[in-house]
């Protein structure tokens, strides 16, 4: 039994920043996970106000419990402010974002990170250490090498070619979270030289959390917010019922995705059903294993994780996807993670779906 906290952070780390200056960057694309957004299964209720938009190369939607029929325009503006600020700080698809400026900086240069960026980086490093680098926020150069990084047109097909082995090995030597010179107390990050951050496996979940917290602080007592299928609920619907969520779990086309009741908490999904390429009949996932610098090769098609916070659900979905069916299940069981793991179906067989004990306890008992 590990002595590590069971997917928890201290109160100080879990407290998200309450405000930030409006971002000046235009909406951009994180270039990740082009799966279909989760369907939000709800009865039509005039006391629920629905808003939507586009961000990070995907869509966002918000359902607000609004029994007093208040104007939702302030909520729309608040959500857009949060999304613009996350992009301005953490999108390496933006030429003038903070993360892009760090990635292009010379060896020995340092930056003091905003509280939000520091919060996300600290969480990513936590999971990197705990998982043996199954998740690593410093793999940006390798992500780009494989063609999964920023492109002029994010929706264009993958270039479908394998990078040279010497180049993979070279970038592996200059990547890795242990090379980061990070001072959490001062929030100062030093560029060791040639290292590129990529927070795509966690930043979208953080954006969900931050928007929800801002909405709560503005007086919205209940709602459901999602970005590209990663979602978080708080409170109950006006009829006192929980929110009903149909997961985009990556199951086979003939299978019915589960519909779950959710009051407070978040879901995130990682998988290769919507973002992959093939060369010579071999499937290559968009998820890289930071330990090898190459796409994962096991049979998992998707992983869905429940957590109190979407940022951690996002990161853990990536961790379990990289670890694979057995190691991922072992890690989830060891740390009490509620997860649903789906494997590709073998020819003539049904796809395997694995539910962790924490998932069964929370959603099926």
UniProtKB/TrEMBL annotation:
Catalysed reaction(s)? L-threonyl-[protein] + FAD = FMN-L-threonyl-[protein] + AMP + H(+)
Q: What is its EC number?
A: 2.7.1.180
Which UniProt key words apply to this protein? FAD, Flavoprotein, Magnesium, Metal-binding, Transferase
GO MF, any single term? transferase activity
Species of origin: Comamonas guangdongensis
A Pfam family the protein falls into: ApbE
- What name goes with this protein? FAD:protein FMN transferase
Under the heading InterPro entries, the entry gives:
ApbE, ApbE-like_sf
Keyword Acyltransferase on this protein?
A: no
> Which protein family is named in the record?
Belongs to the ApbE family.
Protein's UniProt keywords contain Magnesium: yes
Query: Which parts of the chain are coiled coil?
Result: none
Q: Which cofactor does it need?
A: Mg(2+)
């Amino acid at each position: 039994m590990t002595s590590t906290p069971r997917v928890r952070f201290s109160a100080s780390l879990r407290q998200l920043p309450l405000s930030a200056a409006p971002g000046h960057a235009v909406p951009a694309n994180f270039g990740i996970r082009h799966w279909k957004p989760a369907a939000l299964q709800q009865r039509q209720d005039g006391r629920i106000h629905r808003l939507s938009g586009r961000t990070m190369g995907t869509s966002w939607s918000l359902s607000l419990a609004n029994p007093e029929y208040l104007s939702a325009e302030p909520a729309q503006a608040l959500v857009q402010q949060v999304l613009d600020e996350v992009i301005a700080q953490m999108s390496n698809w933006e030429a003038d974002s903070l993360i892009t400026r760090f990635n292009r900086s010379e060896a020995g240069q340092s930056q003091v990170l905003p509280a939000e960026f520091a919060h996300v980086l600290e969480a990513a490093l936590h999971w990197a250490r705990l998982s043996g680098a199954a998740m690593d926020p410093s793999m940006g150069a390798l992500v780009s090498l494989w063609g999964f990084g920023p492109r002029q047109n994010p929706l264009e097909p993958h270039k479908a070619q394998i990078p040279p082995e010497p180049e993979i090995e070279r970038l592996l030597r200059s990547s890795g979270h242990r090379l980061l010179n990070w001072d959490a107390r001062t929030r100062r990050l030093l560029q060791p030289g040639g290292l590129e951050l990529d927070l795509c496996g966690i930043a979208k979940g953080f954006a969900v959390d931050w928007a929800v917290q801002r909405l709560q602080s503005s007086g919205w007592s209940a709602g459901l917010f999602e970005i590209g299928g990663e979602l978080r609920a708080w409170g109950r619907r006006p009829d006192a019922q929980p929110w009903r969520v149909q997961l985009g779990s990556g199951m086979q086309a003939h299978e019915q995705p589960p519909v779950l009741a959710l009051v407070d908490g978040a879901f995130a999904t990682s998988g290769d059903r919507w973002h992959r390429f093939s060369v010579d009949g071999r499937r290559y996932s968009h998820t890289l294993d930071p330990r090898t610098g190459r796409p994962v090769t096991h049979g998992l098609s998707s992983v869905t994780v429940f957590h109190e916070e979407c940022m951690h659900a996002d990161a853990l979905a990536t961790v379990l996807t990289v670890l694979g069916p057995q190691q991922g299940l072992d890690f989830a069981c060891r740390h009490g993670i509620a997860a649903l793991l789906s494997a590709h179906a073998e020819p003539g067989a049904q796809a395997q779906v694995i539910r962790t004990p924490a998932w069964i306890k929370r959603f099926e008992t």
